[in-house]
Amino acid sequence: NQPVRILGVGASVPQKVITNFDLEKMVDTSDEWIVSRSGIRERRIASESETTSTLAIEAARIALKKSGVESSDLDLIIVATVTPDMLFPATACILQRELGAENAACFDLEAGCTSFVYALSMAEKYLSAGGGNFALVVGAETLSKVLDWKDRATCVLFGDGAGAAVLGLGEKLGIISTHLGADGGGANYIEVPAGISRMPASIDTVQNRLHYIKMAGNEVFKFAVKIMEEASLKVLEKGKIKIEDVNLFIPHQANIRIIKSAAKRLGIIEDRIFVNIHKYANTSSASIPLALFEAVQENRIQEGDIILLVGFGAGLTWGSALIRW
Ligand code: ACO
């Protein structure tokens, strides 16, 4: 079987920066609290005209350029997101129209913050099963639009952004293994309760602020540390790779304490961990591809390196991918 390779990556974030000091003026919080509890110093926030698709398009254009693949050669577009432009049509279809990728099948995939890893795994399986030659996978979010800017427990933790990867069949290099999982028992730990089938939008849902993210932070924290370790070990076992052979660990950027605890349990040394949470906060499905893009830009990844991606998120979900770059 030919491995599926990441041929090029791209990313895009809004211009507007909101620092912890800005947040101090909006809710009862402090830079000291946010930095010590999460590692976040600032985040990017979309303007009114910026949406998930506009960020996704910019990231996708860069990834296409870097990969040398024409948009008309794409056979598949998956947008991994929990904040699509609209409930339907799929944001992937909007991307297809803007990119002129008329030969691509398009859909969105939602698996909480793990959506990008899920989408990467689905695209890999699709290409390796003969579904086509090239796929575009984009993790894109405008979480600021579903944040309750009066809730200090959540609004300080999230940000907006997008990251994209173009996939194609490789010869030796490429995705070695992926591992995905879920536990619906934790479905109520992170949710946006209203707006669709269970609780359609009404004056009550708006007045009760039910269109915003609700999160049981402590429960998610405990789950995250454990699952980051387990998901990493599973994908290493599947790929028959030892942890000491991993050149770069790119975890979902939700909280520096989660990242450090997971890395410690796994025995990964600090200079092999990629961290950019201080600049962007938790960008959900965008966090891993955005980190991957920056790691490539900063020459932290060389051809042949082993990269370990691992994420977790609402659902609850988790996923990991091992790549020979
Ligand atoms: N500023 C100041 N104080 C705050 C803030 C804030 N922004 N937010 C909460 N507090 C207060 C709380 O009210 C609490 O006060 P109390 O003790 O008087 O009740 C106190 O700080 C401590 O709160 P804890 O929840 O115990 O703080 P903790 O150290 O656990 O950190 C955090 C909280 C950062 C939310 C952590 O639990 C966490 O990161 N959890 C994981 C969240 C996560 O990763 N979510 C993303 C999931 S992915 C997805 O799919 C969306």
UniProtKB/TrEMBL annotation:
Region described as ACP-binding: spans on this chain: 253-257
Active-site residue list: C113, H252, N282
Keyword Acyltransferase recorded: yes
Keyword tags: Acyltransferase, Cytoplasm, Fatty acid biosynthesis, Fatty acid metabolism, Lipid biosynthesis, Lipid metabolism, Multifunctional enzyme, Transferase
Parts of the chain that traverse the membrane: none
BP GO terms, sorted: fatty acid biosynthetic process; secondary metabolite biosynthetic process
Beta-ketoacyl-[acyl-carrier-protein] synthase III C-terminal domain mapped to chain residues: 236-325
EC top class, as a word: transferase
A GO cellular component entry from the record: cytoplasm
Catalytic activity: malonyl-[ACP] + acetyl-CoA + H(+) = 3-oxobutanoyl-[ACP] + CO2 + CoA
E.C. no: 2.3.1.180
A Pfam family this chain is assigned to: ACP_syn_III_C
Main localization (coarse): cytoplasm
An annotated Gene Ontology molecular function: beta-ketoacyl-acyl-carrier-protein synthase III activity
Pathways involved: Lipid metabolism; fatty acid biosynthesis
Beta-ketoacyl-[acyl-carrier-protein] synthase III N-terminal domain: residues covered: 107-184
Comment, domains: The last Arg residue of the ACP-binding site is essential for the weak association between ACP/AcpP and FabH.
Function field: Catalyzes the condensation reaction of fatty acid synthesis by the addition to an acyl acceptor of two carbons from malonyl-ACP. Catalyzes the first condensation reaction which initiates fatty acid synthesis and may therefore play a role in governing the total rate of fatty acid production. Possesses both acetoacetyl-ACP synthase and acetyl transacylase activities. Its substrate specificity determines the biosynthesis of branched-chain and/or straight-chain of fatty acids.
HAMAP family: FabH (MF_01815)
Similarity-based family: Belongs to the thiolase-like superfamily. FabH family.
Quaternary structure note: Homodimer.
Protein name: Beta-ketoacyl-[acyl-carrier-protein] synthase III
Species the sequence originates in: Atribacter laminatus
Taxonomic path: Bacteria, Pseudomonadati, Atribacterota, Atribacteria, Atribacterales
Underlying gene: fabH
